[in-house]
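S.,

Sequence below, as promised.
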Amino acid sequence: MEIICCIKQVPGTNKVEADAETGVLLRSTAEAKLNPYDLYALEAAFKLRESIGGTVKVITMGPPQAEAAVREAFAMRADSGVILSDKAFAGADVLATARTLADGIKKSGSFDIIICGKQTTDGDTAQVGPELAEFLDIPHIANVRIILGIEPSNTGHIRVEADMGDYIETFDVLLPCLITVDKGAYVPRLPSYRLMLASASREIPVLTAADLPGESEMYGLKGSPTRVKRIYPPDAKNARFNIGGSSESVANSLLNELRNLKFI
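The prediction came back faster than expected:
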């Protein structure tokens, strides 16, 4: 079973600078971490490999420091990894990101299943996984909370439970396919220090726009039909006041204040 897991580095803090002209986050200068939802996707991939065998390959798109995300996945027991990195990929919206990942996966070889985190904490769109599946022309299920079983053959299928909001539904999906995993689906394992040391010098292939089949105008900001008009940090309001008196007067004062603030 050949499993691909899509991962991404996201800002590790809310203090991230943005390009004033394009509205694009300046990721190269921001503190970064592995997207939390991707930890659940990685664990789902490892559990699947442990149950039926196979390999787990991770793929990420980002600036050169995205290599750290792949090496963290190695320390968690990923078998191999690929990095998509090029200035031409910068500023990509969800459509351009999905297109780039799709072309990168096509270039990287065959697969039976792709597992993604439900969403990223920097965008929260939950759109890249399904759009990636559409570019690859494969079936997909989002919001998966558990993998129930799999039949490893070209005509096989995977059975999953997905959270549909008001109810839980079971799906049988033909392979190859893509699933996005919700938080809490599995408990992510901790990275192994020994594996981190052992894989520190492992070579990681890097693919640029020139390596992919699409035109460079299809990627990054040029290939993004959506634009960020404005991006800014929210105003922090730390005003405080104390209310004293009897229980009744405190309750009335608090009620009036909440009404003035239009919270109720």
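The longest strand covers residues 140-150.

Coffee later?
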